Amino acid sequence: MKQAAIKVDAPIAISRRHFLKTGSGVLVGTLAAGSGVLAALAPSRSWALTLSALNETEGGKLLKVTRGIFPHDTLDDAVYALVVKDLDAAAAKDASVATLLRDGFKQLDKLASGDWASLDYLARENIVIKMAGTDFFEKIRGTSVVSLYNNEMAWAHFGYEGASYEMGGYFDRGFQDLDWLPDPDAAASPAKA
């Protein structure tokens, strides 16, 4: 299932009335300088995500929780924002999801004895670990597995070339293109007799 790309440098069409009425927010960011392949896919280094149910603070916390559950130091926030997008859409459709997320954010702050998001990475991560197994944690983890890893931006970052059947199979695409492992020694790959 393909994920819709985040609109980059597109004007955000949202009226002040709608913004105040829904309490929604906008999550914005800039691609890191070393984003490489991801930067090549995006027409600009800036990105924005309009939130429907969550506000900007909640969207930011959700991004940090997702990054904590699935940490990839070199994966840009723009890819993690796809998880925020999908969870925000779920919260907009179902009030129980919005309540679950907001209660989870309150629990994070309670465990942090203050503002969880303002803590350093390790302190935040230790609190997220304490919440493992909760409905809040599992909702984010379950959504992240699909949203984070089933999109072309993540594939490009990790070097995944896509399903082999779409390209005529591994034989036609090049099955000997493994470059992220060392070559095996001669004893492991004896010549054909």
List the helices and strands and how they pair.
Elements: H1 16-22, E1 26-30, H2 37-41, E2 46-50, H3 56-69, H4 77-93, H5 95-111, H6 121-130, H7 135-149, H8 152-158, H9 169-173
Antiparallel strand pairs: 1-2
Helix pairs in contact: 3-4, 4-5, 4-7
Walk me through this protein's architecture:
The chain is mainly alpha-helical. The protein has one domain. It has nine helices and two strands; from the N terminus they run αβαβααααααα. It has a two-stranded antiparallel ribbon. Helix 4 crosses helix 7. The longest helix is centred in the middle third of the chain and has 17 residues.
List unreliable stretches of 5+ residues: 1-23
Q: Distance between termini?
A: 44 Å
Tell me the number of helical segments per DSSP (H or I, 4 or more residues long).
9
Number of self-contained structural domains: 1
Computed over alpha carbons, the radius of gyration is: 20 Å
Helix content: 40-55%
- Structure summary, number of beta strands: 2
The overall pLDDT, averaged over residues, is 78
Query: By helix and strand content, what is the structural category?
Result: mainly alpha
> Main β-sheet, in a few words?
2 strands, antiparallel
Strand content: 5-15%
Principal-axes shape call: elongated
**What strand order characterises the main sheet?**
1-2
What's the order of the H and E elements? HEHEHHHHHHH
